[in-house]
Amino acid sequence: MEIIWNIVNREGDTDRKKVRRFLFLNTVFWALIGFAAWGVVHFFALDTVGWALSFIGYAGYFIGWLGGAVFLWRR
């Protein structure tokens, strides 16, 4: 998360835009990681679309969005 924040913080936008951009990028990043994790698990078990959405959604929401909000709150 620190790397994403440093990338967003370099640009000369307002604080509100930085926060929005960081939360969006962090959520997308963690959703892609969830997709990659499902891709690995997909070869062994859990091969339905519902499981794919669960892996992507939970990773994106809980780690990406909520984790990013806590990260920003602590800054």
Compact overview of the structure:
This protein is mainly α and 75 residues long. Helices cover 84% and strands 0% of the residues. The protein has helices at 2-10, 15-42, 49-74.
Number of helices: 3
- Written as H for each helix and E for each strand, in order along the chain, the element string is HHH
| Overall 3D shape | elongated
Rounded Rg: 14 Å
Looking at how many chains there are and whether they match, the oligomeric state comes to single chain
Strand segment tally: 0
Structural class: mainly alpha
β content, as a range?
Answer: under 5%
First and last CA, distance: 12 Å
State the helicity in percent bands. Answer: over 70%
Round the mean pLDDT to the nearest integer and report it: 93
Largest sheet: none
Instruction: Report the uncertain regions.
Output: none
